[in-house]
Amino acid sequence: MPLARHDAFREKQLKLSRRAAMYRLEMRKCKNATDYELIYFDLRNLAESARLMFECSGTKYDDVRITASEWAEMKKSTPFGVLPVLKVNGRAISESQAINRYLAGALGFAGRNNFENAQIDAFADYFKDFRSAIRPYTYVAGGIREGDVEELHKKIFLPAVELYFPKFCERLKATDGDFLFDFGVSWVDFDIADCLLTLLGFDSHLLDNYPELGRMVTAVREIPTLKSYFERRPVRAI
Q1: Is residue 218 domain-resident?
Q2: pLDDT of 9 higher than 60
Q3: What pTM does this model have?
Q4: Which of 2, 147, 149, 207 has CA atoms 20 to 30 A from the CA of 225?
Q5: CA angle (165 as vertex; 134, 195 as ends), nearest 5
């Protein structure tokens, strides 16, 4: 390799090494940060999996629950005009799934490698599709909108359950455990389990035909560091 090209190559490698070192340092700082602030409404919904990660890991955080009038005042100051927002040492992260992925990496609820993280993302996105499909029902069942809850349960909710739930049960059978991955609980387990707890409040027989998902919910509730949180957290419809 000519000397000039060799020097250019080495300079490029040094820049990449410095960038990687700065990234690792930043990740260590974020992981050890105690100044976490989670901002959301006084609901579980899109912020609860983040709360569960904080509680399960014993990580200190400020659980900021705002009113609709407070949100109207602060909306323009958020990155995308939506909640939840997570602040880490004052720096904001928006969108619930981005928050979940960030906290999973920082607090120990991610996969062990890129492939496992991609699988976690796949199940999270698949469950997000389910939540989107049943939203007309959950909004009415949760008292957010008016409508015929029985009709929506029959025509929207049950067909979605029958379409999506078997895939999760197949996965749980394959791992031969209570969680979707054999390495232990991940953030997507929290995301799914809490949503199922909400839905069980609307339909107590929801998991009668899906015992694997029932065991997942029970396993999450019985994690030692979460038991007291489930006992003291505010009771909300969603």
Answers
A1: yes
A2: no
A3: 0.83
A4: 207
A5: 55
Which residues is 63 bridged to in the sheet? Answer: 38
Give the model's pLDDT for residue 34: 62
Enclosing domain of residue 183: 114-223
CA nearest to 237, candidates 191, 199, 193, 188? 199
Q: Which residues contact 89 (CB under 8 A, 6 or more apart)?
A: 29, 30, 33, 35
Distance of CA 208 to the CA centre of its chain: 25
Give the CATH number of the domain where residue 203 resides.
1.20.1050.10
- Crossing angle (nearest 10°) for helices 114-141 and 187-202: 20
Please give the pLDDT value at position 176: 79
Query: Phi then psi for 94, rounded to 5 degrees?
Result: -110, 170
